């Protein structure tokens, strides 16, 4: 069983973030959402470990759930 890596693990993360933002340049909201969904599914397939994916999904939902509770 794997575990989500939460410490920085990408060489030059700011450069990657800039490329990620640039990939959205000129896209409509729908196209941008589609790009994000495709990226998530490609990376989920690459990871392939449902325990890790479930943990990541739970982690990703936490800020939204906390925001909802405080509203």
From TrEMBL:
InterPro entries: DUF2783 (IPR021233)
UniProt superkingdom: Bacteria
Protein's name in the database: DUF2783 domain-containing protein
């Amino acid at each position: 069983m794997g575990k989500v890596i939460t410490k920085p693990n990408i060489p030059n993360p700011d450069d990657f973030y800039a490329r990620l933002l640039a990939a959205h340049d000129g896209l409509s909201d729908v196209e941008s959402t589609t790009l994000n969904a495709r990226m998530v599914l490609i990376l989920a397939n690459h990871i392939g470990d449902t325990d890790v994916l479930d943990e990541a999904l739970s982690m990703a939902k936490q800020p939204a759930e906390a925001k909802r509770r405080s509203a």
